[in-house]
Amino acid sequence: MSGDTNAVQGGRRISAHAVCAAIRDDIVSGAYQPGSRLTEELLARRYGVSRVPVREALRTLESEGFVTTRRHAGACVAQPSEREAADLLDIRALLEPLGAARAAQRRTEAHLKVLRGLVRLGRERAQGGQLGELRPLGDWFHETLAQASGSPSLAALLVQLRRKTAWVYAAAPGPRPAPPEGAVRPDPAARAMESWAEHGALVDAVARGDADRARALATAHTERALSEYRLRRPIPVRTSKHSVNTASGRN
Prior knowledge:
Elements: E1 6-9, E2 12-15, H1 16-29, H2 40-47, H3 51-64, E3 67-70, E4 74-77, H4 82-106, H5 109-127, H6 134-147, H7 152-171, H8 188-208, H9 211-232
Antiparallel strand pairs: 1-2, 3-4
């Protein structure tokens, strides 16, 4: 099956894209630590595929910045720098409001139906204290909002930026800062409720076709989210197990 980027598993073909998504998810979740080697043989065994789609997946992940190739070591998980983390925050702060404004102009009724359903579920889970279920709902919300922009290139970039920001800040070296003396740690449940209220207001603006309002709300939401990243990992800025044959659903 040389030259074929698909693998056969359970009587059906598994694409290199699915293998790539599986490896990427494991990198983002921390299953593979920065600097750790990614050998084709072990990855193929882990995901139950041949080495051909694994090789293709590693090339894609290298182009995305999740993987790097070292002499005498082969493919390894990339080690993000402080500058890269700062750049990602700046780029997200510019592009997410643009995506929201475009969504207000180009969204379909199908997009609105999904977005409203996700806001309802997010508020219910946050109110019920089911905080562990909010991250996938948030990912799904923002991916749908990006798709509603009507620009496949912008949507793909926004999704990749969110993944890389979460990964970079989780993987960045160095101790996490202690809170200032006397500071009160934010209540995660209260912040979750606030965040989903912001999502709801954004969907309302998108539904009305109010691009300026959608942009302003997305800017405020993004700045709050990115401020939380900076508090967890204060990086200087210039400006402001897993099987590939299972379906996956996608703050």
